[in-house]
Amino acid sequence: MRLLNRSVGRLSRHRRRPLAGVVLLLVALALTGGLYAVFSPSSSAESDQTQAEKAAQGRQLFLVGCASCHGQNGEGLKAQDGKLLGPSLIGVGAAAVDFQVGTGRMPMAQPGAQVQKKRPTYDQDDIDKLAAYVASLGPGPSVPTKNQYDPSTYTDAQRKQAVTLGGQIFLTNCTACHNFTGEGGAMPRGGYAPKLLDTKPKYIYEAMLTGPQSMDTFSNGNISPQEKKAVIAYVESMKNQPGYGGFSLGGLGPVSEGLFAWVVGLGILVGFAVWIAAHTTRSSKKKKGLEA
Amino acid sequence: MSEVHDGSHEIEAHTDALLPDPGLPEHTWRPTDVDPKAEKRAERQVATLFGLSALCTVLFVVSYVTIRTGVNGPTILGWGASNVTLGLTLGGALLFIGIGVIQWARKLMADVEMVELRHPASSSEEDRSMTVAALQAGLEESGIGRRPLIRNTLIGSVALLGVPAVVMLKDLGPTNKDVTESAPYPGAGLEHTVWRSQMRVVRDVVGTPIRPGDLEIGDLVNAEPEIIFGKNKGVPVPEDQVLEGADLQIAKSKAATVLLRMDPDDIVNDVTRNWSVNGIVAYSKICTHVGCPISLNERTTHHLLCPCHQSTFDLADGGKVIFGPAGRHLPQLPLTVDDEGFLVAQGDYPEPVGPSYWERNTYSLEQVAKNYATKTGEETGQ
Amino acid sequence: MSVDTSKVASSNGTNAATTTTKSSRLGALASWSDERLGLAAMGKKNLRKIFPDHWSFMLGEIALWSFVVLLLSGVFLTLWFKPSMSEISYQGSYAPLRGVEMSDAYASALHISFEVRGGLLMRQMHHWAAMLFISAMMIHLLRVFFTGAHRKPRELNWVIGSLLLLLGTLEGFTGYSLPDDLLSGTGVRAADGFMKSIPIVGTYISFFLFGGEFPGDSIIPRLYVIHVLLIPGLLLALIAAHMLLLVYHKHTQWPGPGRSETNVVGFPMLPVYAAKAGGFFFITFGVSALMGGILSINPVWKFGPYDPTKVTAGSQPDWYMGWPDGALRIMPGWESHFWGSTWSWNIFLPVIVLPGLLFTVLLLLPFLEAWITGDKREHHLLQRPRNAPTRTATMVALMTLYACFWLAGGNDLIATKLHSSINNITYALRALVFVAPCVAFWVTRRWCISLQRHDNETLLHGYETGIIMRSPEGGYSERHLPLSEAQAYTLTVRDRGRVGEEDELKPNGRPTLRSRIRTLYFDDDVQKPTIQELEEARAHAEHEAHAVATLEGHSADGHQFDGHHLTEDEPLRGED
To answer: Where are the domains of chain B?
Structure first.
């Protein structure tokens, strides 16, 4: 009691009970904390935000960063000469937003034949808000769950089957644009199908689902969610596959092989030929016993 | 004029030389020729190289025996260890021998330049005349000059012997006509595929039938007729009618189809619209250029691009060629819906699919549609 | 100054250049063989045959030794490869394809790659060696043409070489189609399309080759026989003929001191050339093995088995077929229909007609040149490319045409990697294939002519020493010194004027077509100086040197740098 009295002595000097100082301190602390909790802005990690709240905040972000091309209400904007500035986002769904903004494609840095992937401008929370807003504009595909897109949720046996099935689907539907190693390919008028090997599984799923830019959609009625996951498993296996034969030369097929044959192969051999036929070191001495 | 007289005739070679020939330069010796220490060093160098080669050979055998090959084998830097080590050791074994032999030649073998005189390419006059005389004597004795009857009949009969060699190649394969008439497998002949009326359109690889409601606008489906997966109108076909082996491959190489769902308002061609269902159109997946399968679709413009030579077809306008080396529009498959709501074909393709060939009757899409309507009218007895 | 000529071997002479003492065992063996085969006569002529030495003469060797590597690695592969299109369900170790239906040929290719130790190495060595074979033949062809080694008496060797190039290309195509994978199968499908485009007989050829409709089950076994037996047999025979002619004619050589049209200066077959060529064989083999070990080529497991409904972006044939593929891509889609028949110009012209035409031109080049120039002499001395400007420019124009088609074959990869429009690339190349060769021809020709002028200036005014002189008036000039005798001789061993016979005029007094072409061929060629011009220039140079020498304080005879006397004792800058 004496100890407590000493520290809160000043506080309780004029009080009747010795514990009063302690209680006062505790009440003051509790009040401060409580007031702080009530009045401080809530952090965005709060998961008990409703969809409506997210959508509202998403709208604020949208108006700042997206409305200049996509319209105040996401209805799309056409320039005076009829050229499309930004397509309508009504019905594209949360998945499309998660893909486009998550891979950094949107906001588009500059107009061009195709949107380029770049460092994302928004963090995942803001992307979720934007997605919620766009989803509220009209029904569309939603962001997939981890179970739907992540091949690590397979058992080993399941994965083996998935890789085989996914491979066949990939070779039927995807390699025509994206190339057999997922290196990418050319589309008309400056467009291109991008590389797949450095794309995250969630984005591969969303791209198939929403058909970004000139890519076709592969809706769940076309390639089912299980088949999509199998394709992702196959792409992952391609990524992790060792180069059984050595350095892959860029995975572009015969063109890079030809380049290497000429530059490396023939180059080395011609280099050897030059060495073989070159004059060796000469000495100014004369050989013993022989006249010049 | 430089000449060579070896008793017979001269080389007909001359290149004008303005100045007198200073002759071969004085030979300068190499250090290995004049300095015994350098010579020994070079010898040791060559021997070391050969020794390194032997070492590499030993390492090759060791790698072969100890390093597992294949999908579960070890890797070095992400590369298959078996392949890399076998390649490096074999390469080293061979390369060191080669470098060693070359060093031997360069450093130690005599390198005094030597001169050899050329001879004319033609034979000497004497040889020529003797050959001519021999030929003449031989021909004269054979009497072939004096006996035209023998000569001509010989030439004729020998020439005729070429015919069996050519004729025996006939059975290399049937002709298109043979195959179309005898139909040894379903859809035989360049003009036909396995598509039939009411045959369901199914997704490739998985083989499931498709309802129009399954597809959204912008969906591209790589499709096949259900017979590829052993079904007809939803029901499995009998064992002996299941396509397999070469028959299956031939069927796939003509029947492969792409389905695209677009906004019905985007379709500009009447024939295309007639043959579509709710904006879903079906086209042959086989390019009309040289037959690669096409499935690069640019969704926003519904242009289908072939990856082989970049022929581009407009799927909203009868598969018209809008860029590239293809010479002919893409054949369209007329679609309808069966009584269970699945997408089915109205019949076979109205025109031959795939690359053009000489005997192909090629019509515009409108004419094809007219012919098709007439044909189906006849078949259904209208 | 000259070599001890008692050691020179004269024209396939009667005595060996050196005497030998063989060990008695070897001698006994040699006697035994000779008593039955009489090989000594051949040995006497050829064991010490002289070959000239230059690195550019070894390019054909690269092709030769690659062919040997192909034979050796190919035999290895035949021990495991199954040339059968029977459909099986894969049960091997490559998991992503387990259970997939594929041909036996493809499955055996997977087996070689994954279950046979060293199998993937041999597959890759074989493919790399094939690439080296064809590319070496091409640069060998270019070297021969640019240096004029295709002239009489070697025109037939040129024809044989061109046939080797064609057969090598076909051999490569049949070879990489054997594993029946998706990429090469797409190429076979395209080949079927090419055959179908041939008027009248197209479908017959296609059906006969495939044993019916595409793909059938006969094409792989048939390509196998062509690849393993028929074409290698032809290649071996033609290579033997090519080598025989080379040995008979003896190799050409560069002009220089001691070298003439009637001799060969170099080193003997045994031991120097046997060592250098043999060593080069091991080096080529070793480089193929290294490439097969660390550079992945044709990873068929990634493509999957051939399926007529699947395809990949970036579908290209191997590089040596790239140029017909390119011609095919940029060709407009011309197709004509007459009376129920279809004429596929868009395929027939670029793939059947164009290669046929270009190959015929290639074959006829030496004969064309002989017709134009009328030159009937034998040639054993090589020409520098600059001394035949029109010939050099023609080949550069052909190379540019080839390169344009090559680029067209990779147009989709160019579009992807350089972020450009594939449509614009195609349009640009359509124009470029006509414009670029003409530009290349003109530029090359003028370049050669200016190089000839430079040679002449060097002959007349000497070479630039890098020493700057200041005259009393204050002007700067660079000191030139005359070329050495050897260098001057080398530069002046070339024909003067228009070689060959002049054409007579036509009856109406006008020049014949051949005359006019001939005039254009030799137009603007810069001739080497006459002996008077050389003498004048020499006198002028010596005069100048003497004038300058008094300034420097010592005599300068202008021979400091050309080997006539050593420079160690010469004060070059005027100090003593």
So the answer is: 31-107, 136-163, 189-381
Residue C6 has pLDDT above 80, yes or no: no
Residue A277 burial (CB < 10 Å; 0-12/13-18/19+)?
A: middle
Partner residue facing C261 (CB), from B14, B95, B112: B14
Q: Which of B95, A250, B46 is nearest to C293 (CA)?
A: B95
- Nearest of B335, B294, B301 to residue B317 by alpha carbon: B301
Q: C56-323 architecture in CATH?
A: Up-down Bundle (1.20)
- On whether any CB of chain A is under 8 Å from the CB of C295, the answer is yes
Cβ contact C309–B169 (<8 Å): no
Residue C150: per-residue pLDDT: 96
Prediction pTM value:
0.88
- Find chain A residues with C-beta within 8 A of B113's C-beta: none
CB spacing of A276 vs C318 below 8 angstroms: no
* Mutation target among A262, A272, A287 for the C interface, most CBs of C within 10 A: A272
DSSP string, B124-177: PHHHHHHHHHHHHHHHHHHTTTT-HHHHHHHHHHHHHTHHHHHHTTGGG---HH
Query: Which structure tokens are listed for B17?
Result: 């030389």
Taking the Cβ of residue B221 and every Cβ of chain A, the question of whether any pair is shorter than 8 Å is answered with yes
Half-sphere exposure of A288 (CA within 13 A, CB side): 4
**What ipTM did this prediction achieve?**
0.91
- CATH match for B189-381 among 3.90.650.10, 2.40.380.10, 2.102.10.10, 1.10.540.10: 2.102.10.10
Strand, helix or coil at B227? helix
Residue C479 has pLDDT above 90, yes or no: no
Which one of C188, C197, C230, C344 makes the best mutation probe of the B interface by having the most chain B beta carbons within 10 Å? Answer: C344
**Cβ C416–A277 below 8 Å, yes or no?**
no
Q: Which helix (H) or strand (E) holds C403?
A: helix C389-409
Between CA C189 and CA C185 the distance in angstroms is 6
pLDDT in tens, A254-271: 988 999 999 999 999 999
Interchain CB contact of B82 with C (< 8 Å): yes
| DSSP letter string, A216-258 | PB--TTTS-HHHHHHHHHHHHHHHH--BTTSB-GGG-THHHHH
Cβ-Cβ contacts under 8 Å, B260 against chain A = 216
| CB-CB neighbours of C236 under 10 Å | 12
Neighbours of chain A (3+ CB pairs under 8 A): B, C
Subunit contact A244:B34, Cβ cutoff 8 A: no
Phi-psi region of A184 (alpha: psi -120 to 50; beta: other; left: phi over 0): left
Q: Which residues contact A155 (CB under 8 A, 6 or more apart)?
A: none
Q: What residue spans define the domains of chain C?
A: 56-323, 448-561
Token pair for C352: 């059947």
* pLDDT(C62) > 80: yes
Interface list for C 169-198 with A (CB within 8 A): 182-183
Interatomic CA distance for residues A89 and A220, integer angstroms:
20
Residue to mutate among A180, A232, A240, A280, with most C CBs inside 10 A, is: A180
- The verdict on B288 touching C (C-beta cutoff 8 Å) is no
Q: Does A286 touch chain C (CB under 8 A)?
A: no
Classify residue C232 by its DSSP letter: H
Q: Please tell me whether residue C89 adopts helix, strand or coil conformation.
A: strand
pLDDT of residue B12: 73
Mean pLDDT by 10 residues, chain B (382 residues): 48 80 87 90 96 97 93 90 96 97 92 88 90 94 91 95 92 90 89 94 94 92 94 89 91 95 93 94 96 90 92 94 94 94 94 92 89 81 54
Q: Closest to C276 (Cβ–Cβ): which among B21, B102, B326?
A: B102
